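Quality-control log, excerpt.
Job 1 of 2 completed; input and output follow.
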Amino acid sequence: METYLSATYFIDCDHPDIKAFAASACKKADSDIQKAVALNLAVRDGIRYNPYGIEAADESMKASTTLNRGDGYCVAKAVLLAACARNQKIPARLGFADVKNHLNTRKLKALMESDLFIYHGYTEMYLDGKWLKATPAFNLELCRNFNVKPLEFDGLSDSIFHPYDENGNRHMEYVREHGTFADLPWQRILDEMIAAYPKYYKDLKRQKNSFSDEA
């Protein structure tokens, strides 16, 4: 488990800002399960989901960078949650899967030219003798704009995206699992995303849209 408790370049759990953020989120928690629940909520709602904020530079994907920026897409937020968990001595790792998102916006879908999101990121935390999935990507405001229930994590069972929205329409489905990792394989993910979404990555600097407003 030492591997899943250690600081890395991306999961910089020893960064003072990560330490302060995690400590603040966990100040009322008395157990690892309570800490994990509190951390997931803090990352979910304290950091806005932003699929337009992806940058190629390694620095942009560090947990501390996402925290200080205040937004990030699913992988960036998963990295941040893993860093916060490790800071609180909870083993954590990253998981990835290709997902089909049926609630994409027109603008983002036009840029991606697909409704398949490759390498969707989530966090796994080791609690009470088992690995549990937590998905802190969509913040509460965005869920309301999309008319989907915010995804809760209770520290007792996996928390992955709902397959349907609140009206019963298809929301998200997992298509392919990529497994789990002790650190972020950013170059591998970036290379595959550039190949999958060439229009999006043609000029990253112009991706300044508000995904929440579009939703």
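Job 2 of 2 completed; input and output follow.
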Amino acid sequence: GLVKAYGDSAKEVLAVAKSKPIVKTVPFSFSTGYDFYENAKKICLRYGCDDIREDFQTDIKISGFVPEEKFEEFASEILNSSNGKVVCSVLE
């Protein structure tokens, strides 16, 4: 009886559990002025960045994780959209 109860509970959990594919990511960071902040956030969302952290000081430091295969394109869009003012780098 106990095995069946545990089995039924496990089936119910798996039925409602959300899953997402495992994607290799790289940590990134860049600093930007407040004038580019909203655009930077939109770019991060468009590229599927995850675990985004923001530190608001004189400038805003944004860090997080971006899918590895998208990093070069992501960094290029950040640079181009900011007219060459914001450089995104990979954290070690």
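Post-run check on job 2. Residues 2-16 form the longest helix (15 residues).
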